[in-house]
């Protein structure tokens, strides 16, 4: 049994978002605390070995399964007070009724009307995963398809693409060890395109992705297909119409109208770019700008997202 006022510790939530979560929790007779005297702790992606009281812990699943497979063991979940996945899509996949979203934080640079290059950009770190759910291998396939069939039309931005064979092999082996005992382990995904050299590397891009203003479109492939990351929002803000591979956006029809949704295969992604003309791209771009200009008053804003966290915590408490 919990006391009349349940004390909640928020670990990993910061700034205005954490403050607004706290304000919303008061509606449910819940209060937040920063001390170690709490009844429940909501913690983002914890290291499970460091948790002393799992029965007081709600795990916020932010990192996808392809990155933190240790957090997605349903047998372990029974030891914890609750599991709160990031995104409606992840909750649906896992059979969980409650979820939360981070509010969308847009870049602050002023947009300009640069002449856009008739090329495509993709911005991603060169990552590896031993999970069959991973989309890292698909990114590499798309890049290689452009190398072979459309040379000079795709620019690749990001880090870790040219760190050398030894470092790459070490990172792949580390990923294999993370996933080898998991049901979704895939040796092929882990070691696909081993030691391939990518000739269309264009260097690093600032985290705001401001340089995307130079491109007509960008390719945005999520790490996993069960959540929406910040990259798609930054691409829309820059006006580089995203060819988007992620969850089927059944819960986000307005976002779906601001992107070119593609299936998770090379042909679907490449064909989306080959059939769309500049007029179509311009209309999608204009809608994307309008959509983002009204974002804060929508379900993507900090107020709505904070309210959703508070409601989810309250629901989990009542189901304990």
Task: Describe, in plain words, how this protein is organized in 3D.
The chain has 320 residues and is an alpha/beta fold. The chain folds into 2 domains: 6-103 and 301-318, Rossmann fold, CATH 3.40.50; 117-293, Glycogen Phosphorylase B (Rossmann fold). It is built from 11 helices and 11 strands. The protein has helices spanning 15-25, 74-77, 88-94, 136-149, 165-179, 187-191, 230-238, 253-256, 266-275, 278-293, 302-318, and strands spanning 6-11, 30-32, 40-44, 57-61, 82-85, 117-123, 154-157, 201-203, 215-221, 241-245, 260-261. A 6-stranded parallel sheet has the order 8-7-6-9-10-11, with helices on both faces. A 5-stranded parallel sheet has the order 2-1-3-4-5. Strand 10 (241-245), helix 8 and strand 11 (260-261) form a beta-alpha-beta unit. Helix 1 packs across helix 11 (302-318).
Distance between the termini: 9 Å
Cα-atom Rg, whole angstroms?
Answer: 21 Å
Q: Which structural category do the helix and sheet elements fall into? A: alpha/beta
Number of strand elements:
11
CATH class of the largest domain: Alpha Beta
Q: According to CATH, what is the topology of the largest domain?
A: Rossmann fold
The biggest sheet, with number of strands, parallel, antiparallel or mixed sense and barrel status, is:
6 strands, parallel
CATH architecture name of the largest domain: 3-Layer(aba) Sandwich
Mean pLDDT across every amino acid position:
94
Number of helices: 11
Helix content: 25-40%
**Looking across the biggest beta sheet, what order are the strands in?**
8-7-6-9-10-11
What is the element string, with H for helices and E for strands? Answer: EHEEEHEHEHEHHEEHEHEHHH
Low-confidence stretches: none
| Overall geometric form | globular
- Can you say what the CATH homologous superfamily of the largest domain is? Glycogen Phosphorylase B
In what range is the share of β-strand residues? 15-25%
Task: Provide the domain count.
Answer: 2
């Amino acid at each position: 049994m919990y006391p009349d006022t349940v004390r909640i510790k928020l670990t990993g939530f910061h700034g205005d978002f954490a403050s607004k979560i706290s304000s919303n929790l008061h509606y449910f007779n819940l209060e937040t605390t920063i001390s170690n005297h709490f009844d429940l702790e909501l913690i983002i992606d914890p290291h499970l070995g460091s948790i002393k009281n799992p029965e007081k812990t709600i795990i916020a699943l932010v990192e996808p399964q392809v990155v933190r497979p240790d957090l997605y063991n349903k047998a372990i979940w029974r030891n914890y007070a609750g599991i709160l996945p990031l995104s409606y899509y992840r909750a649906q996949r896992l059979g969980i009724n409650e979820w939360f979203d981070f509010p969308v934080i847009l870049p602050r640079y002023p947009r300009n009307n640069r002449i856009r290059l008739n090329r495509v950009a993709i911005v991603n770190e060169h990552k590896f995963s031993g999970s069959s759910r991973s989309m890292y291998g698909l990114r590499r396939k798309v890049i290689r398809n452009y190398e072979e069939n459309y040379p000079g039309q795709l620019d690749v931005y990001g880090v870790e693409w040219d760190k050398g064979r030894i470092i790459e092999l070490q990172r792949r082996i580390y990923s294999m060890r993370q996933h080898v005992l998991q049901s979704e382990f895939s040796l092929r995904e882990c070691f696909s395109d081993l030691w391939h050299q990518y000739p269309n590397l264009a260097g690093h891009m600032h985290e705001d992705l401001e340089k995307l203003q130079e491109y007509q479109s960008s390719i945005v492939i999520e790490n996993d297909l069960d959540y929406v990351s910040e990259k798609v929002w930054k691409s829309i803000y820059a006006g580089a119409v995203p060819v988007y591979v992620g969850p089927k956006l059944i819960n986000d029809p307005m976002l779906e109208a601001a992107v070119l949704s593609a299936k998770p295969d090379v042909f679907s992604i490449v064909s989306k770019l080959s059939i769309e003309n500049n007029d179509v791209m311009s209309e999608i771009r204009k809608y994307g700008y309008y959509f983002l200009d009204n974002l804060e008053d929508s379900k993507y804003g900090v107020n709505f997202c904070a309210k959703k966290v508070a409601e989810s915590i309250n629901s989990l408490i009542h189901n304990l």
